[in-house]
Design a protein that fits this description.
The chain is mainly beta. It is 7% helix and 50% strand. The chain has 7 helices and 35 strands.
Length: 688
């Protein structure tokens, strides 16, 4: 609460600097997106994959107190799996594979020891837009076989000072006091001659959450992955820029703290998949250290808009992150608590040079260092200290095809050197450390062509390389000498699609396919398995705009995935639900009239019955459909918003929690946790 009061004071101070009202401009495109049409999925012209852009307006419409970016992407972007509704994005894949997360181009994903916190290193109030590349991309690398999520922070506005101030609170009817949550944010920016700045502050404090039948949910409702209840978080973003002639220098610092402190962090149990009973928490606190995330991102960029006949962009960055996991107890065993700590430093130099009226070259060099260690809290973790250095020269060529299309092809050569220290693994075996060296040439080719003024066909092939669950492979007891060999994973992705307009209708359809020889799965004992695998599916989108202010549309994603369990070359088993999402369909209807705007959203997640002996494929999952309703009104100097999530108080369990609720193992006692029931959020935002 002290944190919240302090933030309110700072917010008031910032808001006082505002000059007069001006609507925030969120129409700009970030670093990675070179073309987009009203959010319609569009292939980026330097990769072979599809792109979605989620604007600040869409983020605001889909946000409540402590909404995760993963929740928003699940409801707005095809190909993104349903959220776990927790702090983690474990199991929330893009097209069945893990993805790389960036904030303003700075890597957030912990590639050496995956902690699945990449999406949760910044508050939503600091975000200008989110760009999602769906499918492997060799134009940006060091991970991300499933795609790439670039979180673009807000930027300073031109002209006089622009400020916004917002407050919101959230509660569940019937549990108002225990569930009461609140958030506050403020942003101010200004351009003064050649100088510009932006400051954004946000703070949140959340209460408990309850199932539709009134059962208190565990503060961490998915094991030790990190929960959303009983937390305080703070986000501060400062951006400074200076521009003269063709030169621009800009720097930013983003600080994000997320800490959970709950009176109900005791033993979780009592769940039953068969009887539909949600697991519930007990009073107490098993944690030795308060779980949460501390994330620091430092970014410095120099841009020259007139060099060698084109542009140059030099970025230098550093990211420091500590993730403290929840301590848990189930199946009669109390698991130790631990945390991961990573420090990344890197640079990216990019030139864009037109060779002629029809040919553009993009080329440059990526460099990164990453040091990751698991800090023991209650007991030795069994994980080694890992140090990585990597670099990758890249070249992309884009060729205009008669003004009606484009052909893009490129190469990227990744070189990664990983140093592994001596350690004792989880089985108590001493493992000799050593150096691992990887060199992977990656290529991509894609093309789009306007077969008419309103219809475009596109397609492409791209490769990506990632280290995979390197730390897990070293720690799980299967390797006694690092020099004996650890393989990375190369993924090849293919897609072909059609997009266009028909009157007031925007639409797109994409078929995608990817394959890897070292795909990662887990067997029935939760041991890591590397095997040949293939994933395929389709994505559909549609948006219809009327003349009376009514807009409606949605997305649909269907996919399947198989892998080779015995190495004989035959794909004989379905991939588990932590990799392959059940069918996901989203729909919305929005109506603007006078001073008000009204919106209804629906999310349907289908059932799934994998033919698999993989752990997360042992449990059949049941489908569910959720509705959210929202309204906004211009009231006084600002906008009043009311939103109701889980409008019909539907009883459901998120798909990934269901897949972990394996009855035969007794895991449903712990993992079978229903989602939150109906909740009401009220917000008020002023712009000055």
């Amino acid at each position: 609460m002290k944190l919240l009061k302090c933030s309110i004071s700072m917010v008031a101070l910032l808001a006082g600097q505002a000059a007069y009202a001006q609507e925030e401009d969120t129409s700009y495109l970030g670093e990675l997106v070179l073309s987009a049409n009203r959010g319609t999925e569009t292939p980026i012209d330097e990769t072979s994959v599809s792109v979605s852009v989620v604007t600040a307006e869409e983020i605001a419409k889909n946000s409540t107190v402590n909404t995760t970016i993963g929740d928003i992407l699940a409801k707005t972007v095809p190909g993104v799996a349903p959220s776990t509704e927790n702090l983690t994005n474990y199991g929330q894949t893009i097209r069945g594979r893990n993805f790389l997360t960036l904030i303003d181009g700075v890597p957030q994903t912990n590639t050496l020891n995956v902690d699945y916190r990449g999406l949760n290193g910044i508050g939503t109030s600091a975000i200008g837009q989110v760009e999602v590349i769906r499918g492997a991309t060799s134009a940006y690398g060091f991970g991300g076989a499933g795609g790439l999520v670039n979180i673009v922070t807000k930027r300073p506005e031109e002209g006089e000072a622009v400020s916004s101030l917002g407050y919101s609170f959230k509660f569940q009817p019937g549990h108002v006091e225990d569930s009461f949550s609140q958030s506050i944010f403020a942003t101010t920016s200004k351009t003064i001659g050649n100088f510009d700045y932006l400051v954004s502050l946000g703070a949140e404090k959340t209460g408990a959450s309850f199932t539709p039948d009134g059962t208190r949910r565990p503060p961490d409702s998915f094991g030790s992955q990190g929960g959303l209840d009983d937390v305080e978080n703070f986000n501060g973003l400062v951006k400074l820029g200076y521009e003269v002639d063709q030169h621009r220098i800009e720097g930013s610092v983003n600080v994000y703290n997320y800490e959970q402190d709950s009176d109900y962090a005791g033993v979780v149990g009592g769940g039953s998949f068969d009887d539909g009973i949600s697991a519930s928490p007990s009073e107490g606190d098993l944690n030795t250290v308060s779980p949460g995330t501390k994330n620091r991102t430092y970014n410095l960029k120099y841009i020259n808009s007139d060099i060698f006949g084109g542009t140059m962009d030099l970025q230098v960055y550093r990211n420091e992150k500590v993730t403290t996991f929840t301590r848990t107890s189930y199946l009669g065993y109390e698991y130790p608590q631990y945390e991961t700590e990573s420090e990344k430093t890197g640079a990216r130099l990019t030139f864009n040079t037109p060779i002629s009226d029809v040919i553009d070259l993009t080329y440059g060099l990526d460099y990164i260092t990453d040091k990751t260690v698991v800090n023991d809290i209650d007991a030795p973790s069994g994980y080694p200290e890992l140090d990585m250095q990597g670099y990758a020269p890249f070249l992309q060529a884009s060729i205009d095809i008669g003004g009606r299309g484009s052909l893009t092809f490129g190469v990227r050569h990744e070189v990664l050197d990983v140093s592994v220290g001596d350690f004792t693994n989880e089985d108590g075996t001493d493992v000799t450390g050593g150096d691992l060296n990887f060199q992977e040439p990656l290529w991509n080719i894609s093309s789009s062509y306007d077969i008419s003024d309103s219809v475009t066909v596109f397609g492409g092939i791209s490769e990506a390389f990632e280290l995979g669950s390197l730390a897990r492979a070293l720690a799980d007891g299967t390797i006694t000498d690092v020099a004996s060999g650890v393989e990375g994973k190369k993924t090849t992705s293919y897609e072909v699609g059609l997009r266009g307009t028909f009157g007031s209708l925007d639409y797109s359809g994409v078929f995608f396919f990817s394959q890897s020889d070292n795909g990662e799965t887990y067997d029935e004992n939760l041991d890591l398995v590397l095997a040949k695998e293939e994933i395929k599916g389709i994505e559909l989108t549609a948006d219809y705009y009327t003349q009376i202010g009514l807009t409606f549309g949605g997305t649909a994603t269907f996919m399947t995935g198989r892998y080779d369990t015995d190495g004989n070359g035959t794909l004989d088993s379905d991939l588990g639900t932590d990799r392959i999402s059940p069918a996901k369909i989203t729909a919305y209807a929005e109506y603007e009239y006078g001073i008000g705007a009204y919106r209804l959203d629906a999310l349907h997640v289908g059932g799934r019955n994998p033919d698999s002996d993989q752990f997360t494929g042992l449990q059949t999952t049941e489908g569910y459909t959720l509705f959210d309703a929202a309204a906004q009104f211009e009231v006084g100097p600002g906008t009043l918003g009311v939103k109701v999530t889980n409008l019909f108080d539907t009883e459901y369990v998120p798909a990934l929690q269901q897949s972990y609720s394996v009855e035969a193992y007794g895991y449903d006692d712990y993992y079978y946790v229903q989602g939150a029931g109906r909740a009401v959020t009220v917000s008020y935002v002023m712009e000055f």
